[in-house]
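Worked example 2:
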Amino acid sequence: MLVLLLVAVFSQSLAQHWTDTGNIKWRKCGTSHDWVHVTKFDIEPKPVLLPGTISVTLEGDISHRLGHQVTMDIIVEKQLLGTWVRVPCTGTHYNVGTCHYTDPCNYLRTFERDGQCPPQLQNNGIQCTCPFDPKQLRLTRAGFHIGAVTHGFEGFLRDNNEYQVTIKLNDKHNADVERMCIQARVHINVR
């Protein structure tokens, strides 16, 4: 029994460990029962310059078909005087900040309405709309251009600072059980 308790405590401490890539820090904050597992994640450059182009590396897998049965929370926090302060959700066409999506599949339909999934995703076999079937995920230094900071959000990014982003998927058919959690810390500078 003691051995099981030690294994449980040790595995929890590993789940909380931050991986420092030299560009960002990230960690898995979910469980071994998550439906999405990330094993490698990085964003370049350090700091991220906005507007500008970022390079994203991602490896992992989806182990369960994802569709309308999940909700998604994106929590964006800015470090201010040693404390993490949540950035509110804002936007008209695209939401930015700390936002809750009761149906992220509906939000992803934006790609259909705009007519195109980013080629960086398509070229790596990653689709932009639901459902997402179980599969391996792999992006290697895929470049994405981020345009000007949207109106209403520039105030939060005005000061060059460190940000923490947490993404959670929850199973809405199973008492909102968390099915994925990943956190990343990144430095952002606005030009």
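The chain has one domain: 2-190. The CA atoms of residues 42 and 57 lie 5 Å apart.
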